[in-house]
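Fold this sequence, please.
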Amino acid sequence: MLGEKRFGTGLTWPVQRSGQGSYVEASGLDLLDSDIRLLIGIQQGELRWDPNRGTRLRRIQHRRLRRDMLDAIATNEIAGAIRRSEPRARPGSASGEQVDDKLKLYAEYIPLGYDRGGQGTSTAATEIG
């Protein structure tokens, strides 16, 4: 399938050991979903070799925000990160919820160049904190 080859194969996020003494790998949409979860969880500037990769969402992790404000900030930050760093997807809406000291984030995106059989968007969920 074209999408499987285009998206490649690689390690999943979070990195996990497989039963054969190796690491869990994914391909196609599973890999893209994993890459977007990783992208959301990286603090912008954290990677010296790619300082524009990631979001600034850790800055609001401990702030108590109204749900509509949190969703607007999450949508803006995640959309910017996907546009800057993930050419295989187009950003959609995002939402978040604060649970104790954690920030749970849900990002919708549209995989580009992948036939999903009529389904348009995918959702990546990750947690910061």
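The domain at 2-128 is CATH 3.10.450.40 (Nuclear Transport Factor 2; Chain: A,). The CA atoms of residues 106 and 116 lie 20 Å apart.
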